[in-house]
Amino acid sequence: MNVTNKLKIFNDPIYGFITIPNSLLYDLIQHPYFQRLRRISQMGMTYLVYPGAHHTRFHHALGCMHIMQKAIQTLRFKEVSISDEEENALYIAILLHDIGHGPFSHAMEHSIVEEVHHEELSLLFMEQLDIEFKGKLALAIQIFKGKYHRKFMLQLVSSQLDMDRMDYLRRDSFYSGVAEGNINSERLIQMMNVQDDYLVIEEKGIYSVEKFLMARRLMYWQVYLHKTSVVAELILTKILKRAKELTQKGIALEASKPLRFFMENKISLNEFNFDVLTTFAQLDDYDVLSAIKNWQFHDDFVLSTLCKMIINRDLLKIKMVDVKPNKEILEKYKQTYSNLHQLTDKEMDYFIFKGKIKNQAYSKVSEPIRIVKKDKTIEDVVEVSDQLSLKALSKPVTKYFICFPKVLLEA
């Protein structure tokens, strides 16, 4: 009889060796739902700007589990009571927190798998795995939904200073080569404690929190909201929208079976039964990229032109503007473009459009990052910090843009 060795280790470029805590975690990692994350890029189309940004959500999930291990060790050392069952539930919750991401997740959420958020899908996957693993994920699901009575456990999984953010900032910084995002996650974890059932950071760790928030702001402007990343994702969204529109008009498009299913059907959250979830679990980046490679030769001008833009990295021009652009500017571009190509107004909207991006490194409305002072009083990090920049970071900054074909620059 073959007995699999489940005490595996992964060699991670960020943390070194990552150990799998127990056989249940090993079996979850081995499950096809989780293995799919090897084929889902963590940063979508960002590799068109930063060529090294090809790491996956599989990498990220393992990294989150690793630093959750470190956080639990630190809290237990500081005499915070965490049972073996709670420890295991925290590992499961953080390991599976992103399992609901589809290929190029944000583009999919705005085009093919409409109005179903990846967190809702993560919960559906967890509930299905709980059935398969005979109830062993029940506590993890409670924590993930914020229904467990110990509040600090949800904060470790999902908050403004959670294991998810700590890993993705450091990992995305490493793979993109943008050094400004490199945070000191070890120091932040060492400064963690629990008071009045809330996760707190000891006062001497405040500079590490400030660095973390500043790194988050810079990573958003330089990487996640880099204008080329933004326009590439918008083009991808429009490709998928156009493909769905053509499919629903009865025009046949080459696509894998799971991708075709979501192009042919509008599925709401209530309709995500086991069969639909199984179909979604077969979708990954390769379905989308393979389809785009085929669609660049399609007869439909809109679809083929947008696909060629992604394949050849010859994107729409994105122009940042200080104020909200008015319709007149867009109409001027549309008029010029209509002289070059006979397109309807609806088709023109695929090439010429406006939008906005928003960056807010810290929200005073969400669950705050709490600093515990030497006298045991707790304050919001913004109130304790002597950095005026932190107050500025809690204000949302909005930038506007317009997109149009580069050929209009010469017209």
Short note summarizing the structure:
This protein has 411 residues and is α+β, with helices and mostly antiparallel strands. It has 21 helices and 9 strands.
Q: Could you describe the 3D structure shown?
A:
- This protein is globular.
- The longest helix is centred in the middle third of the chain and has 22 residues, at 227-248.
- The model has no long low-confidence stretch (mean pLDDT 92).
- A hairpin with a 2-residue loop joins strand 3 (192-195) and strand 4.
- It has 411 residues and is α+β, with helices and mostly antiparallel strands.
- Helices cover 51% and strands 10% of the residues.
Blueprint (SSEs and pairs):
Elements: E1 9-12, E2 16-19, H1 23-30, H2 32-35, H3 57-77, H4 84-95, H5 105-109, H6 118-132, H7 138-144, H8 151-157, H9 163-176, H10 185-190, E3 192-195, E4 198-202, H11 206-224, H12 227-248, H13 257-264, H14 274-280, H15 285-295, H16 301-311, E5 317-321, H17 327-340, H18 345-348, E6 353-359, E7 370-372, E8 378-380, H19 381-384, H20 388-393, E9 397-404, H21 407-410
Parallel strand pairs: 4-7
Antiparallel strand pairs: 1-2, 3-4, 5-9, 6-9, 7-8
